[in-house]
């Protein structure tokens, strides 16, 4: 899915604190099958942006155009857009009362897909994220990394064109995170989807992405777009390359500069 | 290993039965050798004989059925109404505001305090008894339901919405199951207090039921019947508690082992 965000603005109004502008004049283009990471200080509106794209929040003004069609906040038409977009959160958002398999089947079930087909598709995706044998487990019986894989499978089973990931690996330990990053790249290449990946981790963003978007805060807007031209498929050795480290350093400086400036 | 475990189990069983057995023996000794009037403490055999008598003439079954029926109907309709209204209040915020004062005020009145009024209004029949139990069950379930549904992790709702769930699917597929532990905590209290209120209201205004049997035994100074009824009530209460725990595991299999670790 191709995505264009034009002049996006999101403000929150509260009676006692006045108007807070989370996003302002935000423009962003995401190409078909592109892997884009969004970096930025806390509170720059990264998550808000993702939720607007996912249709979970409504923008104050501006347009989000997918494949040339604007997302319309019309309860009937929104369903179509939503179906093509999937989102995975940092804290998984798995349903604790459903087994791994039923969690993955959830999206299919609410769309009325019959149980045999659901089961088949769930099994296929369980295999894809390497969770065979855990179908009947409840989320709380799994480790963080495994729960995030369930969340990923639950998103992918709905065959989205656009996958939104909101700091999906931030709660995982370093080793699990690296495994998940590699697996995500494989899935992305295999499924030919567009990914927007929000993270705090500069190295992670560069390693995964075709392009890194650095946001500034108050109000949140795009500060810089850094294309990452390193060849694919990538493995962890790219992290040792001069080019990788140079990019990492310049992005780090860019972010810290901004944070110092705003104190 | 197996033998060690068996003797361990045997030891546990022995330890468990030690106190109840001692109480029975002490009772027997006190009645036999102590100078206790049978009005205060009847003979054990007399309690047993009463049990057989009431069982055979059908009275025990009759009073038990009457009591359980009142308890079950009151509990069922009361908690159904409580859960139903709780969900509605959580869903429609303005409705919660509308009910807020009334609900919190009437909740603060101990339900047993309503018994005299209900008797004046509806007499000594089944209805006021069932109504009182129902009211208690209602108030014990409505608040936990309201809070449970209202405090569901927004992340779960967002996840479901992002997959295209509509309002009805969010309510029945996400909010209700997510609030289940809280709702069930209310149901558990409602079940046990239904039984308490049942006995209370039958004692003060009964013409049938286990509570009436107790009060009737008091009037005729028939202490052995009273003890017999108390033991039956104990067994019923014990069964009720077990039933509630059992259904909890059935209704929320994902909670298994979770309560222990937390």
From TrEMBL, chain A:
Pfam families assigned: ABC_tran
One GO-annotated biological process of the protein: quaternary ammonium group transport
Domain of life: Bacteria
Domain ABC transporter per the UniProt entry, residue ranges: 3-242
SMART domains xrefs: AAA
Signal peptide bounds: none
UniProt xrefs under CDD domains: ABC_NrtD_SsuB_transporters
Keywords noted in UniProt: ATP-binding, Nucleotide-binding, Transport
GO molecular function, one term: ATP hydrolysis activity
InterPro entries reported in the protein's UniProt record: AAA+_ATPase, ABC_transporter-like_ATP-bd, ABC_transporter-like_CS, ABC_transporter_ATP-bind, P-loop_NTPase
Name by which UniProt lists this protein: ABC transporter domain-containing protein
Automatic annotation (TrEMBL), chain B:
Keywords on record: Cell membrane, Membrane, Transmembrane, Transmembrane helix, Transport
A GO BP entry: transmembrane transport
Family of the protein in this entry: Belongs to the binding-protein-dependent transport system permease family.
Membrane topology designation: Multi-pass membrane protein
Residues annotated as domain ABC transmembrane type-1: 64-244
Subcellular location: Cell membrane
Principal location listed in the UniProt entry: membrane
PANTHER family: ABC TRANSPORTER PERMEASE PROTEIN MJ0413-RELATED, ALKANE SULFONATE ABC TRANSPORTER-RELATED, MEMBRANE SUBUNIT
Protein name in UniProt: Sulfonate permease
Superkingdom of origin: Bacteria
Pfam assignment, any one: BPD_transp_1
A cellular-component GO term for this protein: plasma membrane
Membrane-crossing segments per the record: 72-92, 104-124, 130-149, 170-189, 195-214, 226-244
Natural source organism: Desulfamplus magnetovallimortis
């Amino acid at each position: 899915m191709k995505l264009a965000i034009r002049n996006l603005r999101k403000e929150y109004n509260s009676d006692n604190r006045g108007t807070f502008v989370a996003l302002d004049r935000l423009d962003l283009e995401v190409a078909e099958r592109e892997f884009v990471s969004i970096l930025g200080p806390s509170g720059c509106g990264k998550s808000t942006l993702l939720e607007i794209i996912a249709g979970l929040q409504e923008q104050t003004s501006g347009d989000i155009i997918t494949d040339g069609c604007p997302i319309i906040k019309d309860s009937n038409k929104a369903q179509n857009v939503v179906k093509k977009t999937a989102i995975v959160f940092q804290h998984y958002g798995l349903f604790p009362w459903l087994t791994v398999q039923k969690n993955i089947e959830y999206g299919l079930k609410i769309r009325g897909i019959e149980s045999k087909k659901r089961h088949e598709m769930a099994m296929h995706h369980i295999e894809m994220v390497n969770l065979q044998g855990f179908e009947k487990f409840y989320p709380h019986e799994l480790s963080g990394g495994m729960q995030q894989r369930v969340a990923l499978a639950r998103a992918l089973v709905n065959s989205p064109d656009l996958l939104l990931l909101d700091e999906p690996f931030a709660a995982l330990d370093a080793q699990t995170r690296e495994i998940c990053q590699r697996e995500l790249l494989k899935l992305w290449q295999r499924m030919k989807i567009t990914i927007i990946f929000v993270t705090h981790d500069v190295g992670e963003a560069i390693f995964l992405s075709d392009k890194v978007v650095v946001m500034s805060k108050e109000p949140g807007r795009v500060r810089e777009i850094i294309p990452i031209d390193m060849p694919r498929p990538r493995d962890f050795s790219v992290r040792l390359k001069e080019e990788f480290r140079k990019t990492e350093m310049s992005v780090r400086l860019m972010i810290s500069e901004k944070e110092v400036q705003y104190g | 290993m197996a033998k060690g475990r068996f003797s361990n189990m045997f030891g546990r069983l022995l330890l468990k039965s030690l106190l109840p057995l001692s109480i029975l023996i002490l009772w027997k000794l006190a009645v036999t050798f102590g100078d206790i009037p049978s009005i205060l403490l009847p003979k054990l055999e007399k309690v047993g004989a009463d049990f057989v008598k009431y069982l055979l003439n059908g009275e025990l079954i009759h009073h038990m059925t009457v009591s359980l029926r009142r308890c079950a109907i009151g509990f069922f309709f009361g908690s159904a109404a409580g859960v139903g209204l709780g969900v509605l209040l959580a869903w429609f915020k303005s409705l919660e505001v509308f009910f807020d004062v009334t609900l919190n005020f009437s909740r603060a009145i101990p339900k047993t305090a309503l018994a005299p009024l209900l008797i004046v209004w509806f007499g000594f029949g089944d209805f006021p008894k069932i109504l009182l139990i129902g009211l208690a069950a209602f108030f014990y379930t409505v608040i936990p339901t309201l809070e449970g549904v209202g405090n569901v992790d927004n992340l779960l709702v967002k996840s479901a919405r992002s997959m295209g769930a509509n309002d009805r699917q969010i309510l029945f597929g996400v909010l209700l199951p997510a609030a289940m532990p809280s709702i069930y905590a209310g149901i558990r209290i409602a079940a046990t207090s239904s039984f308490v209120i049942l006995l209370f209201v039958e004692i003060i205004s009964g013409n049938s039921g286990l509570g009436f049997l107790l009060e009737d035994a008091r009037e005729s100074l028939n202490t052995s019947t009273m003890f017999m009824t108390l033991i039956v009530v104990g067994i019923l209460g014990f069964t009720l508690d077990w039933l509630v725990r059992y259904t909890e595991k059935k209704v929320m299999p994902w909670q298994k082992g979770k309560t222990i670790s937390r």
